[in-house]
Amino acid sequence: xxxxxxxxxxxxxxxxxxxxxxxxxxxxxxxxxxxxxxxxxxxxxxxxxxxxxxxxxxxxxxxxxxxxxxxxxxxxxxxxxxxxxxxxxxxxxxxxxxxxxx
Length: 102
Known about the structure:
single chain; mainly beta; 3-stranded antiparallel beta sheet
């Protein structure tokens, strides 16, 4: 292994925050829910869960979104949110998380 190279330039992001969208669901209900980053933030990923933990949940799809209509981002463009479509196996609180760099 060779010597270490010079220090690279500082990154453009100062941190990552979680933003949530919430919806009450009942057993058997299919729901599509989207969580968005705030203006100036960029989505770096996301996840979905149903509270209470352990409540059955079928995830049909989860993906980044590129605009306020919930469309997928175009190739090479930034994502601004995270969308999930699920069917609840029990009643609870559906949470879609988006992880936003700022």
